[in-house]
């Protein structure tokens, strides 16, 4: 039986974290790297990704970055190829990249809806498909972890219809792919965050996609723990799912929401 320190040790493992430059993604990147993994941040914001990689590398962690749109097939292939070139393979994929424009149905444009689908759902499919083929070729198993949301189980507020549709989709996708990949030793799980303090939840300029302050205040009042979560609180759960601590889990979704779904 392995000691706890070995169960959480990711030394020699290679990870891809999409949307890993800021917020929840950065929290995930930091925890995986601290556990010993080499991490490639894939983020549409190339500058933020490079900044995050430089900061974490300066702390003695192995973190690289690449600019990528997860909805673009050629970008996704480049991400996987880069991870293989830099690290010699891929062991962990975290599909974290996502957008959540807060727009009531009456004002939801087709262009906005399509973009949410492309980033939040198509991106998960593309990365999962490419990484799964790499993992099968390596013949040593691996972990795919999808960041869903409590909205994959229950709507949190009005204005997130497109977002909720994608998160329900990712949860369904997670379960089916877990079934398909289990024979290859590839575990596919999800983590469902509730309200987490990120740059996106703190901005309120009135533009499409910003979080409405009144709605955010109302949401906070419903939380049994009476506080928003921290990105690191998601990072720690992802580390658990990426480690041998979760050795008998696949097709599962871990809810990390401060008790929001108890209401």
Short description:
With 263 residues, the chain is of the alpha/beta class. Helices cover 45% and strands 14% of the residues. A seven-stranded parallel sheet has the order 3-2-1-4-5-6-7, with helices on both faces.
Structure description:
This protein is of the alpha/beta class. The chain has a single domain (8-255), classed as NAD(P)-binding Rossmann-like Domain (Rossmann fold), CATH 3.40.50.720. The chain has helices spanning 4-7, 23-34, 46-58, 73-87, 110-138, 161-181, 199-202, 213-221, 231-242; strands at residues 14-18, 38-43, 63-67, 92-95, 142-147, 186-193, 253-256. It has a seven-stranded parallel sheet, sandwiched between helices. Helix 2 (23-34) packs across helix 9, helix 4 (73-87) runs parallel beside helix 5 and helix 5 (110-138) runs parallel beside helix 6 (161-181). The longest helix has 29 residues, at 110-138. The protein is globular, with a radius of gyration of 17 Å.
What is the correct CATH architecture? 3-Layer(aba) Sandwich
User: How confident is the prediction overall: mean pLDDT?
Assistant: 94
Helix content: 40-55%
> How many separate helices?
9
Regarding quaternary structure, what we see is: single chain
Identify the overall geometry.
Answer: globular
CATH superfamily: NAD(P)-binding Rossmann-like Domain
- In total, the number of domains comes to 1
The span between the termini is 39 Å
Largest sheet: 7 strands, parallel
Spatial sequence of strands, sheet with the most strands: 3-2-1-4-5-6-7
Low-confidence stretches: 203-209
Supply Rg: 17 Å
The CATH C-level name is: Alpha Beta
């Amino acid at each position: 039986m392995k000691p706890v320190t070995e169960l959480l040790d990711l030394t020699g493992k290679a990870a891809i974290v999409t949307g890993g430059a800021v917020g929840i993604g950065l929290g995930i990147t930091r925890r995986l790297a601290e556990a010993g993994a080499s991490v490639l941040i894939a983020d549409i914001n190339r500058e933020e990704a490079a900044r995050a990689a430089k900061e974490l590398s300066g702390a003695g962690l192995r973190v690289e970055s690449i600019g990528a749109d997860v909805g673009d097939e050629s970008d996704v292939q480049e991400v996987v190829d880069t991870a293989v070139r830099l690290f010699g393979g891929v062991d962990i994929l975290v599909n974290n990249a996502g957008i959540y424009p807060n727009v009531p149905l009456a004002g939801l444009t087709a262009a906005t809806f399509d973009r949410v689908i492309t980033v939040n759902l198509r991106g998960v499919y593309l990365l999962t498909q490419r990484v799964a083929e790499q993992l099968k070729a390596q013949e040593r198993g691996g972990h795919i972890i999808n960041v869903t949301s409590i909205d994959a189980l229950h709507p949190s507020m009005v204005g997130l219809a497109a977002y909720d549709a994608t998160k329900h989709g990712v949860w369904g996708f997670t379960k089916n792919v877990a079934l398909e990949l289990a024979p290859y030793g590839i575990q596919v799980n999800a983590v469902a965050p509730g309200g987490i303090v990120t740059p996106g939840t703190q901005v309120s300029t009135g533009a499409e996609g910003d979080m409405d302050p009144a709605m955010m205040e109302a949401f906070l009042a419903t939380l049994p723990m009476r506080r928003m979560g921290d990105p690191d609180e998601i990072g720690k759960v992802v580390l658990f799912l990426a480690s041998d601590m979760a050795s008998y889990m696949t097709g599962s979704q871990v809810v990390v929401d401060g008790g929001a779904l108890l209401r």
